[in-house]
Design brief:
The protein is an all-alpha fold. Helix content is 76%, strand content 0%. It has one domain. The chain contains 16 helices and no strands. The longest helix has 30 residues. It is globular, with a radius of gyration of 20 Å.
Length: 354
C-alpha cells in the first residue's frame, strides 16, 4: 500500500471522479436518445464542461486509455483483406492529403498569430492540424509555448467535434462505400479479451517510445493484422465503443474549466476563428481531391478534417463513413507530422513565411 497521504488524496478524489463519470455518462445518454451523431462523446464533453464551471472535475486515470484500447480494436476490425487492399491503393491520396493538411498551417498561422497576439513560431504549432499530443511534443522541441499550443489545439478539436459529426450525419449517406466496408464480426468475449491483452502488449512499447496515442494504435495494429488475414476472433460490442466515447468526451470536458477559458479569452477566440477557417479550407480541398481520385467525398472530408485521430475515427465509425479510409488519412498525417513539421517550421522561419 502507498503512503497514508497518497491514499487519503485518492479517497478525496474518488467522489469527484465518480460524479464526473456519472455526469458524463448521463450527458451522453441524453444526446443518444435524440439519435445525434457521436452523441456519447459530445454529450459527455458538454456535461463535464458544464460541471467544471461549478466545481472540480476529474476522470479516472485509466478510463481514457481503456476506452482507446477498445476503440483501436473496433477500428482495426474494419480492415478486412479487401478493405486493406483498397486503402493501400489510395496511399498516394493519403500522402498528398497529409502534406496538404500540414501545409495549411502556413496559411492559417498568420491569421492565428495576428488574432491571438502570439509569436510566429508558437502560432505555427497552434495552427497546424497535427493533434494535441503530437503538436505539443513538437512545440516543446522547438521551444515554442507548449501551454499555448495545447490550448489552441484543444479548442480546434472541440470545434471540429461539435460541427463535423452533426453536419456529416445530416448530409452524408451512411454505409454507402462498399469497398471500404467490412462485414461485422459477432462478439465472442474470450476472443475479445485475448485481443485486448494482445493490444495492450503492443501498446506498451509504443508508449515507452513516446509515440502519440499508443493505447489506440497498438490494439488497432493487432486487430488489423487479424482482420486482414481472416483470423479476427471477435467484433467489439457497441456498449464498449459508447463507453470509449464517454471517456474521451469527459477527458476533453475536464479541460474546459472557467479559469482555463476566461484567463485565455483572446487565445480561445483566435483558436475558434482559425479552426473554422482551417475546416472550411480543408473541406474544399477534400472535395476536390475526392472528385479527382474517385473516392467518397464524405470520407475524404472527415479524413482531411483538422480534428484528433481518435475523435475523427469514432465519427467515421458512428456514421459508417468508410472507417478504414478515414483512419488511414489520420494515421498518415500523424506520421508525416512527426517527419515534416519540424523541417517545415525551420524552412518557414528562414523564408520569412512565419
Amino acid at each position: 500500500m502507498g503512503p497514508p497521504a497518497r491514499r487519503s488524496g485518492a479517497l478525496r478524489t474518488l467522489p469527484t471522479q465518480l460524479l464526473t463519470t456519472g455526469s458524463a455518462a448521463l450527458g451522453g445518454g441524453l444526446l443518444a436518445l435524440l439519435h445525434l451523431p457521436l452523441a456519447w462523446m459530445i454529450g459527455a464533453m458538454v456535461a463535464t464542461a458544464t460541471l467544471a464551471w461549478h466545481r472540480p472535475v476529474a476522470v479516472i486515470g485509466w478510463a481514457r486509455p481503456a476506452g482507446l484500447v477498445f476503440l483501436g480494436l473496433g477500428l482495426g476490425a474494419t480492415f478486412s483483406g479487401p478493405v486493406l487492399a483498397a486503402v493501400s491503393g489510395a496511399l498516394p491520396v493519403l500522402l498528398a492529403g497529409g502534406v496538404i493538411a500540414i501545409a495549411t498551417g502556413f496559411v492559417v498561422a498568420r491569421l492565428f498569430t495576428r488574432l491571438a497576439g502570439t509569436d510566429p513560431q508558437t502560432g505555427f504549432f497552434c495552427a497546424v492540424p497535427g493533434g494535441v499530443i503530437v503538436m505539443a511534443m513538437l512545440a516543446q522541441d522547438a521551444r515554442a509555448s507548449v501551454a499555448t499550443v495545447t490550448l489552441a489545439q484543444t479548442m480546434r478539436v472541440l470545434v471540429v467535434v461539435l460541427t463535423f459529426p452533426p453536419l456529416l450525419g445530416w448530409l452524408a449517406p451512411h454505409g454507402a462505400f462498399g469497398e471500404f466496408m467490412a462485414t461485422r464480426q459477432p462478439v465472442w468475449w474470450p476472443g475479445l479479451l485475448a485481443m485486448a491483452a494482445g493490444g495492450l502488449a503492443m501498446a506498451w512499447p509504443l508508449r515507452l517510445a513516446g509515440l502519440a496515442n499508443p493505447w489506440m494504435l497498438g490494439p488497432c495494429g493487432v486487430a488489423i493484422g487479424l482482420a486482414a488475414t481472416g483470423h479476427l476472433p471477435s467484433g467489439v460490442p457497441a456498449v464498449l465503443l459508447n463507453a470509449a466515447q464517454v471517456a474521451m468526451g469527459a477527458s476533453l470536458g475536464t479541460r474546459l474549466t472557467k479559469s482555463f477559458l476566461l484567463t485565455s479569452r483572446r487565445l480561445a477566440v483566435a483558436a475558434v476563428i482559425s479552426s473554422v477557417v482551417l475546416s472550411l479550407l480543408l473541406t474544399l480541398i477534400a472535395w476536390g481531391m475526392a472528385r479527382l481520385a474517385g473516392l467518397p467525398v464524405p470520407a475524404l472530408i472527415l479524413g482531411m478534417a483538422p480534428g484528433g485521430m481518435p475523435e475523427m475515427a469514432l465519427t467515421a465509425k458512428a456514421l459508417e463513413l468508410a472507417v478504414p479510409l478515414v483512419l488511414g488519412f489520420h494515421l498518415t498525417r500523424t506520421v508525416l507530422c512527426n517527419l515534416l513539421v519540424g523541417p517545415l517550421h525551420r524552412m518557414g522561419l528562414k523564408l520569412g513565411l512565419l
